[in-house]
Design goal:
64 residues, 2 helices, mainly alpha, DUF4169
């Protein structure tokens, strides 16, 4: 005789595996690696430094 199966556990396990598969697909489609994230952050910081370095104090048209 076989052992009885708890249908609630089987249903939850099936739903859990479906969610895990969807999460894996989303990671592959939308995810970025740590290197990509740090590279993007470094580029943004460099751009901010460059624009702050070229900023003029005051309005040059109204110098008196």
């Amino acid at each position: 005789m076989t052992t009885p199966i708890n249908l609630n556990k089987a249903r939850k396990a099936k739903a859990r595996s479906a969610k895990e598969q969807a999460a894996a697909e989303n990671r592959a489609k939308f995810g970025r690696t740590k290197v990509e994230k740090s590279l993007e952050q470094a580029r943004a910081e460099k751009l901010a430094r460059l624009t702050d370095g070229h900023r003029l104090d005051g309005n040059p048209d109204k110098q008196g």
